[in-house]
UniProtKB/TrEMBL annotation:
GO terms for cellular component: membrane. InterPro entries: AAA+_ATPase, ABC_transporter-like_ATP-bd, ABC_transporter-like_CS, Mo/tungstate-bd_C_term_dom, ModC_ABC_ATP-bd, Molybdenum_import_ModC, Mop_domain, P-loop_NTPase. Residues 290-356 form the Mop domain. It holds the Pfam family ABC_tran. Belongs to the ABC transporter superfamily. Keywords: ATP-binding, Cell inner membrane, Cell membrane, Membrane, Molybdenum, Nucleotide-binding, Translocase, Transport. This is Molybdenum import ATP-binding protein ModC. The lineage of its organism: Bacteria, Pseudomonadati, Pseudomonadota, Alphaproteobacteria, Hyphomicrobiales. Residues 1-232 form the ABC transporter domain. It comes from the Bacteria. It comes from Salinarimonas ramus. One of its GO terms (molecular function) is ATP binding.
Length: 373
């Protein structure tokens, strides 16, 4: 467990935050200028805050009251930047061993073979960085960070410089990292899709303060949480693959509700997370008939949130989980939508892209990758 409490003042900006980062991926989520990079710099030791305390399970990295401030090289932090920052004159194997070279002799170490397998980079070991794609470079950078026996990993928008194809390539490996290691990961992002796919815990930042924190489903299902704009709003449903159909669709069981999606490359029984964008959801007061949309879920309106414009966000609690719908205020009035009203969410099957479906949460793991009881 990583525990963080920080206070720092710049000209025109004040940071005052406190939160905990358990094993898994804790995403710092918010607009540019919300304080994400300041927090990361304080954790890494690149910034000495005015006041604060940062501690892990086995060490205090910073305690301004007690005069403790470990220098960056003694904090044992694995850092993954937006670019891989690999040594161009070294092979992948040598870059990985460079990370292991910095691991303290008495620290629990990751096995090189396990890290290579975890990140799927065995076929890259003899290549140099110039022969790698952007996604491959980031996987090697993550492996180097893991092999330095870190207390925690900082990932500062590691997918920001990648195109959609390379992001799709690396996201499954980040999910494995979340599920198969016990190292806390602090991950900076302003992408709602990345948060939905990866986050164990979400810390929403606004103007230097924490405005919401909790599980990914809780936070992303809150219509008040739109740090990157209402157009990016969307909820997360937990489901399992029920079966695959011959017409190219995969059937999911989401809390007893059936969801049909384009075929997923996952076996029956696999746990998945599905991000449902609020822009892709229609609402009706009675169960619609004669539609091409295959997913119709009944629920109860939990909240209606309106802003200054013509739009509104409606939160609908269903057996599958909370669903958000972005509709107009005129539609809210026409349907008489209000908390407690029953309604139906309508979702086109093809509206959910492969990038919006990720691996479901797994049981927490020990430092050597074994499941915890």
């Amino acid at each position: 467990m990583l525990e963080i409490a920080l206070a720092h003042r710049f000209e025109g900006f004040t940071l005052d935050v406190a939160f905990a980062a358990p094993p898994g991926i804790t995403v710092l989520f918010g607009r540019s200028g919300s304080g994400k990079t300041t927090i990361v710099n304080a954790i890494s030791g690149l910034l000495r805050p005015d006041a604060g305390r940062i501690s892990t399970a086995d060490a205090v990295l910073l305690d301004t009251q007690k005069g403790i401030a470990l220098p960056p090289h003694r904090r044992r932090i694995g850092y993954v930047f937006q670019e891989g920052r690999l040594f161009p004159h070294l092979t992948v194997r040598q870059n990985l061993r460079y990370g292991a070279w910095f691991a303290p002799k008495d620290a629990p170490r990751e096995d090189l073979g396990r890290v290579v397998d975890l990140l799927g980079i065995g076929h890259l070991l003899e290549r140099r960085p110039s022969a790698l794609s952007g996604g491959e470079k980031q996987r090697v950078a993550i492996g180097r960070a893991l092999l330095c026996a870190p207390r925690l990993i900082l990932a500062d928008e590691p997918l920001a410089s990648l195109d959609d194809a390379r992001k799709a390539e690396i996201l499954p490996y980040l999910e494995r990292l979340r599920d198969e290691t016990a190292i806390p990961i602090v991950y900076v992002s302003h992408s709602a899709s990345e948060v939905a796919r990866l986050a164990t815990t979400v810390v929403v930042l606004e103007r230097g303060h924490v405005v919401r924190k909790g599980s990914a489903a809780e936070v992303m299902g809150d219509p008040a949480v739109t740090p990157t704009g209402a157009r990016e709003a969307g909820a997360i449903l937990a489901a399992r693959v029920a079966r695959h159909h011959e017409d190219g669709l995969t059937e999911l069981d989401a809390g007893g509700e059936t969801l049909l999606l384009p075929r997923l490359a996952r076996p029956p029984g696999a746990a998945v997370r599905v991000r449902v964008a609020a822009n892709d959801v229609l609402l009706a007061r009675t169960r619609p008939e004669g539609l091409s949309a295959l997913n119709i879920i009944e629920g109860v309106v939990a909240e209606v949130r309106t802003g200054e414009g013509p739009g509104a966000l409606v939160a609908l609690d269903t057996a599958a989980g909370r669903v958000l719908a972005r509709i107009t205020r005129r539609s809210v009035a026409a349907l008489a939508l209000a908390p407690g009203v029953r309604a139906f969410a309508v979702l086109k099957t093809v509206a959910i892209a492969a990038a919006d479906v990720g691996a479901g949460d797994a049981a927490p793991r020990s430092a050597n990758g074994d499941p915890l009881a």
